[in-house]
Amino acid sequence: MLRHWCTLPSQRRFPADSLARIAGAIAAGERRHRGEVCFAIESALGARQVLGGVDARRRADEAFGCLRVWDTAANNGVLVYVLLADHAIEIVADRGLDGRVDAAQWRAICALMEERFRAGEHERAAIAGIEAVSDLLAEHFPQDGTQPDEDELPNRPRLL
């Protein structure tokens, strides 16, 4: 509980210029694939959530729905969720990626990001994670120019 009360706001670790560069990384990745990437940062959970046993995974699942990451034509949206208070990173992928990308691959991306976060490289951690997610999406949903691709989700990071 104390971690959630004492965590600095997301904007301290991710100022506006950093958020713009993260949005740029999402846009660059989406030029290589037909998937949709959403990056969400939450400083801390509320007291009611913490006392109710909400953990980072459950909150990421909730955010996946609230941010409508599931609502893409090819069911290939991916949420990268960061909960700063718990130093937790979760990736939630839509059903179009079931059987294509396994849990170990998503976990490896989280581990890569966690390593950079521990080093204090918040922006670099976010961009590295987005690039790794984009690599997987480009492998399974390549942008080949034969199908129109609409940008279905905003590229700007979401501060929850």
TrEMBL record:
Residues 141-160 are annotated as: Disordered. Residues 17-135 form the TPM domain. InterPro entries: TPM_dom (IPR007621). PANTHER family: BLL7265 PROTEIN (PTHR30373:SF8), UPF0603 PROTEIN YGCG (PTHR30373). This is TPM domain-containing protein. It comes from Luteimonas marina.
